[in-house]
Amino acid sequence: MLNSGTDMYSPATSRFLNALIREWSGWSLSEEAGASLGTDNAMLRLSLPASHAEVRVPILHVSKTGYHSFAFPMQIDRGHGDLRPVTLPGLVTLLLGEKTLADRSSPAARMTFLRRVLDSAEAIAKIAEISRDERPFAAGDPTFIEAEKALRFGHAVHPSPRSRDEFTGEDSRRYGPEYGNGFHLRWWAVEPQLLVGESATAISPTEAVAALTGGDTSLVARAAATGKALLPLHPWQAARLMEDPFFDRLMRESHLVDLGLGGPVWRATSSLRTVYSAQVPWMLKFSLSLRLTNSRRIVEARECSRGLAIHRLLSGPLGKALKARCPDFEVLGEPVWLALRAPGAGIVQETAVVFRENPFEGTDQPPAAVLAALCERHPDERGSHLADLVRRIAKRSGETEQKVAEDWFGRFLKIAVEPFLIAQGSFGLLFGAHQQNLVLGLKDGWPERLYFRDCQGTGYLEEFLPSLRKHLPEVGSATDHVFDREEAARLVGYYLFVNGAFAVVGALGAARLAEEDRLTGLFRAFLERLALRVEDRTCLDYLLSSPTLAAKGNFMLSLGNVNENTEVTDPLAGYVQLPNPLSRKATP
Asked: Band of the pLDDT at 40, cuts 50, 70, 90?
């Protein structure tokens, strides 16, 4: 009997397969006599003509939103009627021999792709083994950082969601959010003239840094003895930079002094490079000189400027107007940044640190969970943290699981989807609202408020620039993301819907807590009501009428070894078209 627990690579394989079939045409679904397998009686068939073979994968749950669940092991048919098991490493090797994929990358890029997929699969297998009994949402609402740790396997639709170039296994255990281990920051004392930073608040960068020491008097005393200013660094990044001749020279010439580790204990959030401490009013977003998923994670100067701009906008009348319409919506501002400046040159981006507002300071914290953790499937491929939460509510309330699931989804739409569509359609603000940037405030399991993070990627609608400039004249500068209505609609369709809300539908459907068709029907009705309340309906018309929605092509970006941050100038260039389950023309 097939099941999802017979393959150590199953969580990684599911993510790989969902990414693959979004972008590659060499597959089909067939009806199978699969009731005895507990599947939806469907089989994914991957055609591999170069190997004269076909790989078959039973599907536990066929999702109209693109978040399928699979049963394992996979089996390969080489044309002799003899089915043999095949694991992810074998499948990837076969796929890279197919012309339809090989032609999309160079031989070197394909080898890099293979290495990353296998490294990611191994990392996921290890964390799946040690966390198999962890169910933090089954007993109650976790804290913010507990929920960050609950995202174990990474991006739900990506061929290598836990690949971390330059990181060792020990680095992941020490600094990876899925392990939940604490660490101290590294501190440099730097000549003040070599520091550069900005603030969009009354708090200066120097004052913001002072709030990070957490009462570590020894650190403060060591810094004072040097007569220099403090600069915090991620310890992994600091160790890497100290091997660079440029920083070695600055130290030898006493322009900067390494003070070692100090301050309070920090833990990584699910983005890895952003860290959190309950003792400090800021989260910190660092540059890390490594590639995660599609990009090298270096904080760029233009991103720092965007963070300050959106903070200034939302701190004024525009922000008050948005708050009046969306009172349970909170953008975690990024109003301060700091970096080292090279003598006679610009900032050293590898040393940049961005200060993000921390609403989870202290011991009496509101429960909260990043959406990506809630929607992440357990290794059984049916359960999820969201399913655990819904069942807990149903057991406590006496309501049926289906009713709780549908009511929970309705609250989710109101709390976590509506604010972004109002911000876009009524204010011209375009937030990158994907799963990992949406943090749900919870109360007894129910969505109560929404915290949005990572506002450095915020963009603006071109048609709203005249009104936005009344609040902030520099909006729409060369470093800003500016899109017309149609482009913005496609981006919202991917980030907020395909990457965000559709994952909720898929998780509830896979757990058999609600029918996907029923949920998408509720979703359509919600959007139709909202369309009456926004000034620009372009996005809502696209979501309700387009037969397809654009989605980022993570598989091909990875296959081509593309650095999305620096090598993709048109953010929509690598998108593919997916069937739109919300379209009024969609079949039930």
From this structure: low
| Cβ-proximal residues to 546 (8 Å cutoff; 6+ apart), any chain | 493, 580, 583
CATH 3.30.310 domain locations along the chain: 10-130
564: region left, alpha or beta (phi > 0 left; psi from -120 to 50 alpha) = alpha
Amino acid letter for position 186:
R
Domain 368-579 belongs to what topology?
Answer: Transferase(Phosphotransferase); domain 1 (1.10.510)
Residue 276 CA to its chain's centroid (Å): 16
Domain span(s) for CATH 1.10.510.40 in the chain: 368-579
- The DSSP 8-state label assigned to residue 141 in this structure reads P
Q: How far is Cα 50 from Cα 485, in angstroms, rounded to an integer? A: 43
Q: Is the dihedral of CA 562, 566, 567, 573 positive or negative?
A: positive
Distance CA 122, CA 417 (A): 35
Distance CA 566, CA 135 (A): 38
Q: Which of 187, 190, 238 is nearest to 213 (CA)?
A: 187
Q: Work out the number of other CB atoms within 10 angstroms of the CB of residue 464.
A: 23
What values do phi and psi take at 23, rounded to 5? -125, -15
480: Cα within 13 Å, side-chain hemisphere = 22
CATH of 10-130, one of 3.30.420, 3.40.50, 3.30.310, 3.80.10: 3.30.310
Handedness of CA 324, 326, 329, 330 (dihedral sign): negative
Which two three-digit tokens encode residue 176?
């990876």
For the stretch 428-469, pLDDT in tens is 999 999 999 999 999 999 999 999 999 888 999 999 999 999
Q: Which residues of 337-368 are buried (b: 16+ CB within 10 A; e: fewer)?
A: bbbbbeeeeebbbbbbbbbbbbbbbeeeeebb
Residues 6+ apart with CB under 8 A from 298: 287, 288, 289, 349, 350, 352, 565
Task: DSSP letter for 474, please.
Answer: T
Helices 401-412 and 516-530: angle between axes, nearest 10 degrees: 30
CA-based nearest residue to 496, from 452, 538, 456:
452
Q: Model-level pTM? A: 0.95
Q: Rounded to the nearest 10 degrees, what angle do helices 485-492 and 418-427 cross at? A: 170
